[in-house]
Design a protein that fits this description.
The chain crosses the membrane at residues 7-25, 53-70, 77-102, 122-142, 154-172, 184-215, 227-245, 265-284, 296-317, 484-501, 508-526, 538-562, 574-592. Helix 19 (488-503) crosses helix 22. Among the domains are: 4-113 and 121-323 and 483-595, no CATH class; 850-994, no CATH class. Helix content is 53%, strand content 8%. The mean pLDDT is 92.
Length: 995
């Protein structure tokens, strides 16, 4: 018979294989939405992603991408595989951690000691290995962890780092009496250093590891000793978070500024001096450890050095940034900008322990830390970061209700009965903490993983045992993401928790501490606002990891309950293991369909379609992450349309990004921006307020930009004490003279629109202030002279269009700005852009890819359904335009194509579909029009009935979307003369509108 050690290794690798096969079979073959496109692109070419970066992940991703051997279409699946393998190795180390704890319990040797020489019986071995397999597989198939495992994000590798450090600490605990046992602690420190280059969540395991060390090294632990251990381990976390990660680079930056500015030495001299002194201090520390023969000091110094070695992966950030790559966020090429990058200063901060509440008004704005930039042979202060000062009575301890953002205020009121202008009480403050931040944003996510999940609609709740789908909206009831685990994982975990508490209190406390610090402690640290752009369950993977240990130990608890019925150890272990395996079995069966992304290409196809909407050498203004990151992937990895320059509007509010836009990128020439850096440096022209001048009725964009570049007194206005001047704009009406002869010679105006060519473009900016990004748009319009096509993505917020909609031409998925005014444009109508029929027809019918959108077996979650809805809008716009031109044949082709590539069974009808109803009737498809109206009315009726009585406040978007659908159906039915269906839809609309 095999020894326990070999069985432990064998079963562990078997569990690893099961997890690996699962993840590879469900892996997404391309770049998912959110950050995945950015991470894949930055891995492939070692670029600089958003702060604080993930250099360890990028370096490993680069190694995996090399296995593509030049086939760029394989890069995404290879980097996704990095996450899959990170996840399956996490499962492996979790298995071994559970079996180490289970062995102590089964052999009745609780506590901290070396049990390697103890050999379990066959029955005991089966029970121990069964516990490890059940706990590890339960975590492998948990909702949040599985989601992270099949895409190129950092959270899978972050979980691996957590699993490895826990396993290493348990390995050390078994070997602590050996002379060279501290090597395990040094290796652990190195993994912690590497984990900094992945994600900082791993650091929160340190307090639990500290107690393993304390219990192993102390014969008689005391409460005082425990408190000291918690304080010291928390201090270590703080020293790494604040002292090592930003602290050392900050200190190096201070040396650099002093030696360059005060001593007149060349750039980098202060950095060199700092490094010499720092290395000397490390040498001194080691020398002291040898002279004092201090094992603790020597191990501490080794751990510190190995953390630094792991952390050194961050050197790739300034090194790569100095080469000015195409993606170079924040441009952290020197030590000073690198510090800002590490501190994530662009994202601002949130009050944690003490700060203002939501209606606090600042009484002063003080200068904070300076931001230095190179100028000539010195560092000069570009700006001082503003620090707002508040009255003491407007501050409170543990401020949770802190944001005065109007949308946040609206959402605060869903959870707490507060009033604007009235300071919240501590009771209200704590109510929001417990109800929303802990309840909704932690316990809800935790229960998703081990009880069940209602669906994929944002804010979806917990699916408790016994819940039915009766009366639910189809979107929820039929969602593959509606998973019920019958609370079995939770029950088994609670059994394991109580069993370990009774039999091995110290290890139970350690697992509990791991659960607490990677769960509820993160809640306190994040201080989340009352609404998020997406679900944040991935943040708490560490807590679900800790609970999975108890799920595994729950098998021991079940075996203990079976003692009276089954006397034989082997039989009892077999039954307990089989019962335990029901839990991961249910989880994988329920979770497979919604975690299987193997045929999903929507995100990358949407990016390619948007790029292919543009004419050659175009400038394309885009929105946020899901608009931009897939575009970066398509261009950087697959080389799609690198002539198109993607300009992210939110980034255009920063000087570093504008500098990058003024450089060549692949086939794209620099953007035609006339402003110099001094005109848009951070702190300069961040926004231009509207200061009406009655003498100026309208302003020429070219002349306006000249005044901006000259910092003209004509545009300056003063606020406050009059010492600070800002540039402003004197009127909301802008115009741009057009050389019509030159424009006609360029051939950019379609023949059918030449009569719409205007000698000057006139528009009105409906804003009280122009942000820097808007200033860049005006500059490009004034400087470009129509040499390069300029587009807005159709997903851009209309508030960023600056009133240019009358001059939009719809081409595919983007609006092109042309000096031709759409005679049919109506500001009251949401349909922007003159439909360029021939261009649109070619793009939608022949050029665009819609892979998998006709496959009902592919699960498209809420994010993935947004882009198909956009396609339908453009198909309907084209069909309507063709019908207005009398081209019924092509209109029918367009409609048929739309419903062929995106049938209801695969991509459910959305609120754009009613736009097709008049067109369907016009082409003789009355039956399909009726089916759409009846189907959508029925769905809206069912959804509104549900949402009006269940958590109405949480599902504003779903409520409003269904109301919009009813309104569209009613108007469309009226348009085709179907009064019965119109009455039904509009009556339902009125019934629910008041609510």
């Amino acid at each position: 018979m095999r020894s326990y050690k070999s069985l432990n290794n064998l079963v562990g690798w078997l569990v690893f294989a099961i997890a690996t096969i699962t993840y590879l079979l469900t892996l997404e073959p391309t770049a998912s939405f959110w950050d995945c496109g950015e991470f894949i692109a930055c891995s492939y070419k070692l670029l600089v992603p958003h702060p604080p970066g993930a250099p360890t992940f990028l370096l490993l991703g680069r190694l995996f991408s090399l296995l593509s051997f030049g086939d760029v279409t394989k890069v995404s699946v290879l980097v996704n595989t990095l996450s899959a393998l990170s996840s399956s190795f996490t499962v492996l180390f979790l298995f071994w951690s559970i079996t180490m704890m289970a062995k102590k319990l089964v052999l009745h040797r609780p506590g901290m000691h070396d049990d390697r020489t103890s050999e379990p019986t066959s029955g005991q071995s089966l029970l121990i290995l069964g516990a490890g397999a059940v706990g590890a597989l339960a975590y492998a198939f948990s909702d949040s962890f599985w989601f992270n495992a099949v895409e190129a994000e950092v959270y899978a590798m972050s979980s691996l780092c957590t699993a490895v450090v826990v396993w290493l600490m348990l390995k050390w605990e078994n070997r602590a009496d050996e002379a060279d046992s501290d090597k395990w602690l040094v290796l652990l420190a190195y993994v912690i250093g590497l984990s900094i280059g992945v994600h900082l969540l791993n650091l929160l395991a340190i307090p639990a590891l500290g107690f393993i060390y304390y219990y192993r090294r102390t014969q008689n632990p005391t409460l005082t000793g425990g408190i000291i251990t918690l304080a010291v381990s928390s201090l270590i976390v703080g020293l790494i978070l604040a002292g090592i990660i930003p602290g050392l680079p900050t200190l190096a930056g201070n040396f650099e500024v002093f030696f360059v500015n005060n001593l007149g030495l060349p750039f980098s001299s202060g950095l060199v001096v700092f490094l010499v002194l720092f290395l000397a201090l490390i040498w001194f520390g080691f020398r002291q450890s040898f002279q004092r023969r201090s094992r603790l000091l020597n191990t501490s110094m080794l751990a510190f050095v190995f953390i630094l070695i792991g952390y050194s992966s961050y050197l790739i950030v300034p090194i790569r940034s100095s080469y000015h790559p195409t993606i170079n966020e924040n441009d952290p090429e020197d030590v000073l900008s690198f510090v800002s990058y590490l501190k994530r200063e662009q994202y601002g901060d949130r009050p944690l322990l003490y700060g203002p509440q939501f209606n606090a008004q600042p009484i002063a704005q003080n200068d904070g830390a300076p931001r230095y930039v190179r100028r000539g042979d010195k560092y000069v202060v570009a700006e001082y970061r503003p620090v707002l000062e508040y009255r003491p009575e407007d501050k409170m301890l543990l401020p949770r209700l802190y944001s005065n953002d109007p949308s946040h205020m609206y959402n605060y009121k869903k959870w707490v009965d507060i009033q604007e202008g009235v300071k919240p009480t501590m009771g209200q403050n704590l109510s929001f903490l417990f109800r929303y931040q802990m309840g909704h944003m932690f316990w809800r996510y935790f229960m998703w993983n081990y009880v069940g999940r209602e669906g994929d609609v944002q804010q979806s709740g917990i699916l408790w045992p016994g819940a039915t789908s009766a009366g639910l909206p189809e979107r929820v009831a039929d969602s593959p993401a509606r998973n019920s685990f019958f609370a079995l994982p939770l029950i088994l975990g609670i059994i394991g928790l109580f069993y370990q508490v009774r039999r091995d209190g110290r290890n139970a406390f350690i697992v509990g501490l791991l659960f607490l610090f990677t769960g509820l402690a993160i809640v306190l640290y994040l201080n989340q606002p009352p609404i998020e752009p997406r679900e944040r369950d991935y943040t708490f993977a560490g807590a679900t990891f800790a609970f999975a240990i108890w799920i595994g130990l729950g098998v021991l608890g079940v075996a203990d309950l079976l003692k009276s019925a089954l006397k034989a150890d082997t039989a009892r272990a077999a039954v307990a293991t089989l019962l335990g395996l029901v839990v991961p079995g249910i989880m994988v069966a329920q979770g497979w369909d919604d975690h299987d992304r193997s045929d999903r290409y929507n995100s990358v196809d949407s990016a390619k379609n948007l790029l292919n909407s543009c004419a050659p050498n175009a400038i394309l203004f885009t929105n946020g992450d899901n608009d931009t990151f897939p575009l970066w992937y398509a261009q950087e990895v697959e080389g799609v349309r690198t002539d198109v320059r993607v300009a992210v509007l939110s980034y255009l509010n920063t000087d570093w990004y504008i500098d990058q836009m003024k450089r060549r990128s692949y086939k794209s020439e620099p953007l035609p921006i006339s402003m110099e850096n001094s005109n848009y440096a951070q702190g300069t022209n961040d926004y231009l307020p509207y200061a009406e001048n009655p003498a100026v009725t309208e302003v020429n964009v070219k002349e306006f930009m000249q005044l901006v570049e000259q910092n003209s007194p004509l545009l300056q206005v003063s606020y406050g004490d009059g010492t600070k001047s800002l540039l402003s704009f004197p009127t909301r009406k802008f115009y741009l003279p057009i050389d019509t002869t030159a424009v006609e010679s360029m051939g950019i105006i379609p023949a059918e629109r030449r009569s719409q060519l205007v000698p000057r473009m006139e528009w009105e900016v409906g804003k009280s202030a122009i942000e820097k990004k808007s200033l860049v748009i005006l500059d490009i319009l004034a400087t470009n002279n129509w040499k390069r096509p300029v587009y807005f993505s159709s997903t851009v917020d209309s508030r960023d269009f600056m009133g240019l909609e009358p001059y939009f031409q719809l081409e595919g998925m983007a609006y092109r700005i042309l000096p031709a005014k759409d005679p049919a444009y109506d500001p009251k109508n949401s349909e922007e852009g003159f439909v360029a029929q021939n261009i649109m027809f070619d793009k939608l019918m022949n050029t665009f890819a819609y892979r998998g959108l006709d496959n009902a077996s592919i699960f498209y979650d809420e994010n993935n359904l947004r882009f198909p809805a956009n396609y339908r809008d453009k198909f309907s716009r084209l069909a309507t335009s063709l019908l207005a031109s009398g081209d019924k044949a092509r209109a029918k082709q367009v409609i048929d194509k739309c419903f062929a590539v995106m049938p209801d069974k695969a991509v459910p009808y959305d609120y754009y579909v009613p736009q097709f109803i008049p067109a369907l009737v016009a082409v003789g498809e009355q039956q399909r029009a009726n089916e759409i109206m009846d189907t959508m009315t029925g769905r809206a009726e069912r959804a509104l009935a549900y949402y009006s009585t269940h958590n109405t406040a949480l599902f504003d978007q779903e409520f409003q979307t269904n109301l919009l659908s009813l309104n569209s159906i009613g108007r469309a039915a009226e348009q085709i003369g179907d009064q019965q269906r119109a009455t039904k839809a509009l009556t339902l609309l009125q019934q629910y509108y008041q609510r």
